[in-house]
Structure formats: structure tokens, C-alpha cells
Amino acid sequence: MKLTAMALFGAGYLLGSRAGRERYDQISELARTAAAKFETSGARQRLEAYASRLEAYSSRAQSGHRPPA
């Protein structure tokens, strides 16, 4: 009985680990593709420009300047 249980556990573990590795490979490839698309889309530059505008606005607000209405 114990040997059968161990054999079933081993077979299940082996099959599960193979499926897990394939899924891991799929997810990592999707992540690499998304990162490459993000870099080439220009989104990074747009986000950096927006961040600099927010910083400028924040520094003006802290110094007492009011934004235009």
C-alpha cells in the first residue's frame, strides 16, 4: 500500500512539475514581450514627461504660486 501511494505521488509530482514548467515558460515569454512592447511604444517617455510636469506643478504649489484658473 505504501509503495503504491509513493508511486502515485511521484507520478503526480512529475506530471505536475512538467505542466508547471511549461506554464512558467509561457508566462515569462509574455512578460518579455510586454516589456519589449512597452519600451518601443514610447510610453516610458510620455510617463517621464508627465512626471516632470507633476513635479514642477508640485514645487510651484509648495512655493505659494497658484495654478492658472
Q: Which structural class do you get from the secondary structure elements?
A: mainly alpha
Separation of termini?
A: 81 Å
Task: Indicate how many domains the architecture comprises.
Answer: 1
Q: State which percent range the strand residues make up.
A: under 5%
Determine the mean pLDDT: 80
Backbone CA Rg? 26 Å
As a percent range, the share of helical residues equals over 70%
The poorly predicted ranges are none
Shape summary:
elongated
Number of helices: 2
Task: Give the beta-strand count.
Answer: 0
Order of helices and strands: HH
Defining traits:
0% strand; 69 residues; mainly alpha; 87% helix
Provide structural commentary.
The chain has one domain (2-62). 87% of the residues lie in helices and 0% in strands. The protein contains two helices and no strands. The protein is elongated and about 80 Å long. The model has no long low-confidence stretch (mean pLDDT 80).
Short description, anyone?
By secondary structure, the protein is an all-alpha fold. The chain has helices at 2-41, 43-62. The relative contact order is 0.05.
Question: In terms of topology, how is this protein built?
Answer:
Blueprint: H1 2-41, H2 43-62
